[in-house]
Amino acid sequence: MCTIILSYGVPNEQAATCLEQAGNTMTIGIFSLPFWPQDFYLFVLFMIIGVVFVILFTVIFGRIFCGWICPQTIFLEMVFRRIEFWIEGDRGAQIRLEKQAWNAEKIRKKGIKWTLFLVLSFWIANVFLAYLISSDNLIRMVEEGPKNHLSTLIALLIFT
Hints:
Blueprint: E1 3-6, E2 17-22, E3 25-30, E4 33-35, H1 40-69, H2 71-88, H3 91-99, H4 104-133, H5 135-144, H6 150-159
Antiparallel strand pairs: 1-2, 2-3, 3-4
Helix pairs in contact: 1-2, 2-4, 4-5
């Protein structure tokens, strides 16, 4: 019996990575190559090499990645920054708004902005949840109400 961990559409419905337990030993097969417990030092070595590579790549090319390639940066610039410009205005207007005293206009603009941010973030968290558990299960959970799925709602609010 093979527990599928990751499948990349390997021909003949064979898992790309599987975890198999037979008796007292556990075998991890990566593209049908066995990985026995005594090979654990190789796993640790590859993990250390991977971590060092990520750290070195980030140190050397971090600004390139974070400024131009990172999906979070692109997402923030394309979605949240536009909402901010739409409500508070351009950079100069935002600076003037930050410097002005708290009055009805500032409270209204900040309140609308943060409410939209919260609603959009909650919606995005639900989209990712639907991706993980399927949209049918998410719709069923919403129809059953938050009382029946309180832990899921709390997790969504935390990740929002």
